[in-house]
Amino acid sequence: MNDDAMLHDARLRELAQRLGARAADRLDVDRTAQAVVTRLREQPRVTAPAIVWMRPAWLKLAAAVVLLLGTGLVTRGVVRDRRPAATSVVPVGEDLSDLTADQLREAIGSLDQPMTDESGAVDSGGGIESLSADELRALLRALEG
Amino acid sequence: MIPAEPLAAPGAPPTDAALIAAWQGGDEQAAAELVRRHARALARFLAGGGALEVDVDDLVQETFIRAFRGVGRFRGLCQFRTWLLTIGGNVLRDAARRAKRATLVPLGEDVRATGGDPHERAVAGEVAGRLLEGLGRLPRMQREVFLLRAQQALGYDEIAAALGTTPGAARVHYHHAVKRLKEYLK
């Protein structure tokens, strides 16, 4: 390092040592010390268990558990909502040939509207009254999947 | 755990470690003595890091509160004061995030020389003000290493222990800080 650089470094250190000098001089350390002690006395300490719970690892774990539980509950709710629609179709099963046209219409009518909407199997404009027994059986099998 | 420290000689002031132990035992005056002992150095560090003079007292108090609350985490790998200064750095960062103004430091009288020729004082004040601005532009690690080294006159081993880095890395941060500050001051 040449003389200029050393001089510059020394100057930089000298300037750095002066930074904040006035702020430090103006600080009333006795008053500050008293204020700190008062605050320590008045503000309750954070208890050890609270600190443990505030740790990020614990928070992440807790968030994961909540997420899993939430997902489970939502999934359970969805499955429950769909179960009645499924049970209404099950009895039809393999015995379609034994059903009369009225019984078939009644079975189709028991199907949930959303299901028919999603499958697009039922023409909402024409209705099912005009279908024959064979057509109704075909429709019901198609809806059963 | 704070490593064993030689007992102070009879009549000598108690060591930091003794005061910390006393505070942990419930002695409030031990805490007050630690504040009196280190508050000015902390104030200089905070001001050098960009704190407005009007905020320095609050920031000093907040730093000590955090330090005393978390003193159980102080392992004694560095001096209490060095550890305190790093907490001060965190407090300053949090305050800057809240206020978005801590780095907007006006040229303060505190950086100006107080003696000699008025023209020289003005020039010195201007340079010091630019140094403060330059410090505000440095990455936090470089700024803190620079202040701990150049302002607080700490060794690289001590700085590294406080900032959780190696002495070599601390030296590199200081080198980069000096280089950038010199370029800024040109």
Short structural description:
The complex is a heterodimer of chains A (145) and B (186). Chain A is mainly alpha-helical and 145 residues long.
Secondary structure layout:
The complex is a heterodimer of chains A (145) and B (186).
Chain A: H1 3-18, H2 21-26, H3 29-42, H4 48-54, H5 56-89, H6 101-110, H7 113-119, H8 133-144
Helix pairs in contact in A: 6-8
Chain B: H1 16-24, H2 28-48, H3 53-69, H4 80-99, H5 118-137, H6 140-151, H7 156-163, H8 167-185
Structural class of chain B: mainly alpha
Gross morphology of chain B is: globular
Tally of contiguous helical segments of chain A: 8
- Give the oligomeric state: heterodimer
Model description:
The complex is a heterodimer of chains A (145) and B (186). With 145 residues, chain A is an all-alpha fold. Chain A contains eight helices and no strands. The N and C termini of chain A lie far apart (85 Å). About 12% of the residues of chain A have low confidence. By secondary structure, chain B is mostly helical. The longest helix of chain B is centred in the first third of the chain and has 21 residues. About 6% of the residues of chain B have low confidence.
Entry keywords:
heterodimer; A: 145 residues; mainly alpha; 8 helices; B: 186 residues; Rna Polymerase Sigma Factor, Chain: A
